Amino acid sequence: MQELLQRDLGSSLLSLAIILGLIGIGFVFLRIVAILIKRILETVFKKS
């Protein structure tokens, strides 16, 4: 394990950065979807 970390630290950091970036993009996407659902529900309930 130690040998793998020392030899491939740059690759590990790159993978970690990519994973964190994807998680961040996922949260942004979920936030946008939640706002859209909220607006749709508000318009539906205002009409009725």
- Overall pLDDT score: 88
What is the total tally of β strands?
0
Strand portion: under 5%
Largest sheet: none
Radius of gyration, rounded? Answer: 20 Å
Structure class = mainly alpha
Principal-axes shape call: rod-shaped
Q: What's the total helix number?
A: 2
Low-pLDDT stretches are none
Distance between the amino and carboxyl termini:
62 Å
> What is the H-and-E element order?
HH
Could you estimate the helical fraction of the residues in percent?
A: over 70%
Please give a quick description of this structure:
About 95% of the residues lie in helices and about 0% in strands.
Task: Write the SSE topology.
Layout: H1 2-7, H2 9-47
Describe this structure in words.
With about 50 residues, the protein is mostly helical. It contains two helices and no strands. The protein has helices at about 1-5, 10-45.
List keywords for this structure.
single chain, 48 residues, mainly alpha, rod-shaped
